[in-house]
Design brief:
This protein has an 8-stranded mixed sheet with strand order 3-2-4-1-5-6-7-8, sandwiched between helices. It is 52% helix and 12% strand. It starts with a helix and ends with a helix. The protein has 12 helices and 8 strands. The chain has helices at 2-6, 8-24, 30-42, 47-63, 69-85, 114-127, 144-155, 168-181, 198-215, 233-245, 264-272, 293-301, and strands at 102-107, 132-135, 158-160, 186-189, 222-228, 250-254, 276-280, 288-290. With 302 residues, it is an alpha/beta fold. The structure holds guanosine-5'-diphosphate (GDP). Guanosine-5'-diphosphate binds next to helix 6. Keywords: Cell membrane, Cytoplasm, GTP-binding, Hydrolase, Membrane, Nucleotide-binding, Receptor. InterPro entries: AAA+_ATPase, P-loop_NTPase, Signal_recog_particl_SRP54_hlx, SR_rcpt_FtsY, SRP/SRP_N, SRP54_GTPase_dom, SRP54_N_sf.
């Protein structure tokens, strides 16, 4: 239900336009496909993904001998699920195991919704009965530590911090010791997101990651890149930059509720081969959902 509501904007614009094409065409021809292609591209699905989809659609239409444009509509969602899902089954779960300290590192540029996502995930994990601790690793941006503390209070989890400007790797070290001492299940680590000095930022992230790796073999168990769905192709280029610099294991895509271009989800998966693991569908505590391909695709057409 949440998924459906959160995708209202994308769904409205998407189905409206697909319906419009379907209504205008009497038969499924080359022009029909060209218009469909355009709708998908403007929805941020990504050129490569769109081409693949259109090719698949054409083959399927031929195979089933479909003449009526209305019938193509159903095939689109079928094929989208097929292409997107690949060999993956069900919702993309976070790599969290019982009986160990799980460390999740959050990366991404300022303003994408990193702090909010950490707060929401802390709430979700707590609801599932896990103990959670937050690490205030963005020591650079003014107000970042306080903002994380506000979320910590709201959700009822502690925040490990040092003063502004201190070394984020030292914050992580402290946070890991505290998490161990308190027998915490999941440590969620915030990091800086200034892009003005990319080289510096990437070095800082490397160092933070090294400290975590040294302290806990096998950690961080997830490196989640937070991307803002409303920024479209900009999000794609951020994904490329971050995944070159650090081993991103999943994506948290925020603000899907605020865009009519939700197709970015498909582009990320298909072109970068990084799974979208979480989606943000609003500003409130429980507006974070695990990503589920079928729910998403069928949500677009519902
Ligand atoms: P950060 O700089 O990356 O830590 O970004 P913040 O967590 O401060 O978020 C920036 C803004 O985006 C805030 O106003 C959030 O409330 C808003 N935001 C974050 N996630 C979502 C979401 O999923 N949907 C909507 N509508 N707003 C969001």
């Amino acid at each position: 239900q949440k998924f459906k509501e959160g995708l209202t904007k994308t769904r409205n614009s998407f189905s409206e336009r697909v319906n419009d094409i379907v209504a205008r065409y009497r038969k499924v021809d080359e022009e029909f496909f060209e218009e469909l292609e355009e709708v998908l591209i403007t929805a941020d699905v990504g050129v490569t993904t769109v081409m693949e989809l259109i090719d698949e659609l054409k083959m399927e239409v031929k195979r089933r001998n479909i003449q009526d444009p209305k019938e193509v509509r159903a095939v689109i969602s079928e094929k989208l699920v097929e292409i997107y899902q690949g060999d993956e089954e069900g919702p993309s779960n976070l790599n969290i195991e019982e009986g160990r300290l799980n460390v999740i590192l959050f990366v991404g540029v300022n303003g994408v919704g990193k702090t909010t996502t950490i707060g929401k995930l802390a709430h979700k994990l707590k609801t599932e009965g896990k103990s959670v601790l937050l690490a205030a690793g963005d020591t650079f941006r003014a107000g970042a530590i306080e903002q994380l503390e506000v979320w910590g209070e709201r959700v009822g989890v502690d925040v490990i911090k040092q003063s502004a400007g201190s070394d984020p790797a030292a914050v992580m070290y402290d946070a890991i010791q505290a998490a161990r001492a308190r027998n915490v299940d999941v440590l969620l680590c915030d990091t800086a997101g200034r892009l003005q000095n990319k080289v510096n930022l990437m070095k800082e992230l490397e160092k933070v990651k090294r400290v975590i790796e040294r302290e806990i073999p096998g950690a961080p168990h997830e490196v989640l890149l937070v991307l803002d769905a409303t920024t479209g192709q900009n999000a794609m280029s951020q994904a490329k930059q971050f995944s070159e610099a650090t081993n991103v294991t999943g994506i948290a895509l925020t603000k899907l509720d605020g865009t009519a271009k939700g197709g970015i989800v498909l582009a990320i998966r298909n072109e970068l081969n990084i799974p979208v693991k979480l989606v943000g569908l609003g500003e409130k505590m429980d507006d974070l959902q695990p990503f589920d391909t079928e729910q998403y695709v069928y949500g677009l057409f519902a």
